[in-house]
From TrEMBL:
The chain crosses the membrane at residues 7-32, 52-75, 87-110, 122-146, 158-181, 193-217, 238-259, 279-300, 321-343, 355-377, 389-410, 416-440, 452-476, 496-520. It comes from the Bacteria. GO terms for molecular function: lipid-linked peptidoglycan transporter activity. This is Murein biosynthesis integral membrane protein MurJ. It is a multi-pass membrane protein. Keywords: Cell membrane, Cell shape, Membrane, Peptidoglycan synthesis, Transmembrane, Transmembrane helix. GO terms for biological process: lipid translocation; peptidoglycan biosynthetic process; regulation of cell shape. It is found in: Cell membrane. One of its GO terms (cellular component) is plasma membrane.
C-alpha cells in the first residue's frame, strides 16, 4: 500500500498542476476566441474532434487491451519486450491510418456535429479541423507510451507531461492575442492566417507533450524496435478485445455527434459547444485529481490480482476504492454545484454569460459520483480482459443519452438546451453504472455493494448541509450579482475574483462536511484524511 500511496501522490500532484494549468489554458483560449459565439463554437468543435477519438482509445482500446497485456507479459523472461515491440508497431500503424482517415473526413465530421450551423460557420470549423485532427496520432502515441509507463509502475510522467502542452499553448494564445487581438468570436474576424496560427498552436502543444514523455521511456527498462511480424503477438485475443473497444469508440462518437448536433441549434447568443467543453473541463478537474490519481494505481494492483485469479482480493479492491473515492468525490460535486456560476465566470466574458453557463456545469456534476463508481467497475472488467461486456452496457448508456438528447429540444428553451443535455448525460451514466455493477456481480459474486451504496448515501447526507452553508455564504456576498460573479471590482479582474470566490465556497463546504463526518465518527473520514495527509506530505 505504501507503493500505491507514493504513486497516488505523484499522480495527484501532476494531475493537479496539469489541471490548473489546463484551466489557465482555457482562460487564455477564451480570451483569444471568446466563450460564446459562432466562431468560438466552430473552433470548439474542431479542436474537440481529435479528443473524442483519444478519450475512447485511452479508456477503451489502450487501457482495456494494453495495460492488462503488459502486466501479463511483464512476467515473461524478456519483460514483454518482444510482444511490446510488435504491439507498438501495430499501434503506430493503426493510429496513422485512423488519423489520415479522420483528417480526410474533416468536412463530413464537422457537418455531423454542426447540423444546425450556417454554411459559413461550417466552413470555418472545417478549416480549423484540418489543423486539429492530426492531433489524433500524437494523442494516441501519448496514451500508448503513458499507459505503458503506468503498467510498468512508472506513474508520474503520464500525469505531468500535459503541463508542457498547457504551457506551450498558453504562451501561444498570449502571442496570438498580442499580434491579432482577442475575443474573436465572430466568423468574419478569421482569415487563413489566423486560422493557421491558432490551429498550429493547439496541435504543436500535443506534439510537445508526446515528445517530452518519450524521454522517460528508459525507466521502463524496455528497448523496443519496429516489428511487423505480428503472428506471435496473439492477435486473435487482441483483435477480439480491440474489436469490442472500437465498437465502444463508434458508440461514443454517435452519442457525441447526436448531442453536438442538438446543441448546435443554440450556437450564437446561448450556451453551446464552447460552453459545453469548458464546463466539462471544470467537471473533470475533481474527477481527474481524485478518481484518476487514486484509481490508476488501484487499477494496476487490481489487474495483478485479476491476472492471478485472486477474485477475493479483486472484490476487496473494488469496495475499498469506491469508498475511498466516494468520500472525496461527493463533497467535490456538492461544492462545485454551489460555485457553478463563479466557476463558469472564469471561462466566460461577462457575469451574464456565467449565469447562462452555470446550469451546464451543474448538469454534468449530477453524474460525477456515478462516473467515479463506473471507473472502478469498468476497469475491473478490463482487468479480466473483458471488453465485450463494457461494450454492451455502453450501448445501453448511449441509447438513453441519445433518446434524452433528441427529446430535449421539445422540452427546453434554447437558453437551457445545453444544460438539459448535460443533465441527460449524467442520468444515462447513472443508469449505466447500475447495469454494469449488476453484470459484474454476476461474474464475481457478491461485491458488498450494499455497504458501498450506504457509504455514498451517508456522504451525500453530510454534503447537503455543507453545500447549504456554502450557498448561504454565496448569497450573503451578493449571489449572482455579487463580487464572485462580477465583471471586476476596483481594478481586480472578474475572472480572478471568480476563482477566489470558487475557492472560498469550496473551503466552506469542505470544512462543514468534514465536521459532520467527524461528529458522526464516519470510519471513511480517517481513511480519507490519512490519504490526503500522505499525498500532501509526499
Amino acid at each position: 500500500m505504501a507503493g500505491l500511496g507514493r504513486a497516488s501522490a505523484m499522480i495527484a500532484a501532476g494531475t493537479l498542476v496539469s489541471r490548473v494549468t489546463g484551466l489557465l489554458r482555457s482562460v487564455a483560449l477564451v480570451a483569444a476566441i471568446g466563450g460564446f459565439g459562432k466562431a468560438s463554437d466552430a473552433f470548439g468543435i474542431a479542436n474537440q474532434l481529435p479528443n473524442y477519438v483519444f478519450q475512447v482509445l485511452s479508456a477503451g482500446l489502450i487501457t482495456a487491451v494494453l495495460v492488462p497485456q503488459i502486466v501479463k507479459w511483464s512476467a515473461r523472461d524478456d519483460g514483454g519486450k518482444a510482444h511490446l515491440s510488435k504491439l507498438f508497431t501495430l499501434g503506430t500503424v493503426v493510429l496513422f491510418a485512423v488519423t489520415l482517415i479522420a483528417t480526410v473526413a474533416a468536412p463530413w465530421l464537422v457537418r455531423l456535429m454542426g447540423a444546425n450551423w450556417p454554411e459559413y460557420q461550417v466552413a470555418l470549423a472545417t478549416a480549423f479541423a484540418y489543423w486539429c485532427l492530426p492531433q489524433v496520432f500524437f494523442y494516441g502515441m501519448f496514451a500508448l507510451i503513458g499507459e505503458t509507463l503506468n503498467a510498468r509502475r512508472v506513474f508520474g510522467p503520464y500525469a505531468w507531461a500535459p503541463i508542457v502542452n498547457n504551457v506551450v499553448t498558453i504562451v501561444g494564445f498570449g502571442a496570438f492575442i498580442l499580434i491579432f487581438g482577442g475575443e474573436r468570436s465572430a466568423v468574419d474576424q478569421w482569415d487563413s492566417t489566423t486560422i493557421a496560427v491558432m490551429g498550429a498552436i493547439t496541435t504543436f502543444g500535443i506534439v510537445a507533450q508526446t515528445v517530452v514523455l518519450v524521454f522517460f521511456w528508459r525507466r521502463t527498462g524496455l528497448s523496443l524496435r519496429p516489428d511487423f511480424g505480428w503472428r506471435g503477438l496473439g492477435l486473435g485475443e487482441v483483435r477480439n478485445l480491440a474489436g469490442w473497444s472500437f465498437g465502444m469508440l463508434l458508440v461514443g462518437l454517435v452519442v457525441s455527434t447526436v448531442q453536438q448536433r442538438v446543441i448546435s441549434g443554440a450556437s450564437g447568443d446561448n450556451a453551446s459547444a464552447m460552453v459545453w467543453f469548458n464546463a466539462w473541463l471544470v467537471f473533470m478537474l475533481p474527477y481527474s485529481i481524485i478518481v484518476m490519481s487514486i484509481g490508476t494505481p488501484y487499477f494496476t494492483q487490481l489487474s495483478e490480482h485479476a491476472s492471478a485469479g485472486r477474485d477475493k482480493e479483486v472484490r476487496a479492491d473494488i469496495g475499498r476504492s469506491i469508498r475511498t473515492l466516494g468520500v472525496l468525490i461527493v463533497i467535490a460535486a456538492a461544492a462545485l454545484m454551489v460555485a457553478a456560476v463563479p466557476a463558469s465566470r472564469i471561462f466566460t466574458g461577462s457575469e451574464e454569460e456565467a449565469v447562462a453557463a452555470g446550469p451546464v456545469l451543474i448538469g454534468f456534476l449530477v453524474g460525477l459520483v456515478p462516473l467515479a463508481v463506473q471507473f472502478v467497475v469498468q476497469r475491473t472488467f478490463y482487468a479480466y480482459g473483458d471488453t465485450r461486456t463494457p461494450f454492451f452496457f455502453t450501448v445501453f448508456q448511449a441509447a438513453i443519452a441519445i433518446g434524452l438528447a433528441l427529446l430535449m429540444p421539445y422540452v427546453a428553451s434554447l437558453g437551457f438546451l445545453t444544460a438539459t443535455i448535460a443533465l441527460s448525460q449524467s442520468l444515462s451514466s447513472l443508469a449505466q453504472v447500475i447495469l454494469a455493477t449488476w453484470l459484474l456481480r454476476r461474474r464475481l459474486g457478491p461485491l458488498g455493494m450494499v455497504e458501498n451504496v450506504w457509504a455514498l448515501i451517508r456522504f451525500t447526507l453530510a454534503a447537503i448541509p455543507a453545500g447549504a452553508v456554502a450557498l448561504v455564504v454565496y448569497i450573503l456576498n451578493g449571489g449572482n450579482d455579487g463580487w464572485m460573479a462580477a465583471a471586476g471590482v476596483s481594478g481586480i479582474p472578474g475572472k480572478l475574483l471568480a476563482a477566489v470566490g470558487t475557492g472560498v465556497l469550496g473551503v466552506v463546504a469542505v470544512v462543514v462536511y468534514v465536521a459532520i463526518l467527524a461528529l458522526f465518527r464516519a470510519p471513511e473520514l480517517r481513511t480519507a484524511t490519512g490519504l490526503v495527509r500522505r499525498l500532501v506530505g509526499r
